[in-house]
Here is the input.
Amino acid sequence: MIRTIVVVLFLIGLGYAATLGPVAAARAKAEVSDGTQPVAVGADFTVVPAQGWLSEPLVHDVLKLPILPDLHSWAVYFGNQTGMLLRSPDRLLTVEIDTHGAGAAPEAEVLLRDRAAEILGAGTDQPAVRTEALVSGTTIWHMDAASSLLAVIECDGDLVSVAAERTDGEPIDVYRPAIGQLIATIE
Here is the structure.
């Protein structure tokens, strides 16, 4: 009887660690930015959020099943996450910044299309991809929708994705300067 209870408690703990635990661990590591301190994005990059922005490790989904809670990556437990989730001071804008390794234009456009399908829905008409060279010499590929902005930046040969989305579904236009400032601080 006691062995059965121990096994059941162990399985419940394991289920929590795989489903809800990574998100709780990421939120426990959340910090409010002072506007000057860089925040690590993966192992090789940093970003400097403006004052009042909340930053927490980005938790990736490993498996989604319709009848069960999503299974999340355990990387946050070990500090091996590849990205950061930033939230504006009013918490209406979320910005996911994630690293993807080496790549160039074809890989950047594939990343954009994949993220657009996730956010806008598969089969939805996707906005056109625009390519720009920033003053710093960095290349950026981006696409805009009404309540979201997706970008891929080439930094020293590696690709960094930025997915900004309003949580209330309203137009993203008022946040464009803040998103631009975040992108400009990625190093």
Observations:
- The chain has a mean pLDDT of 78.
- The two ends are 57 Å apart (CA to CA).
- The first helix runs from residue 2 to 19.
- Residues 49 and 181 are 8 Å apart (CA to CA).
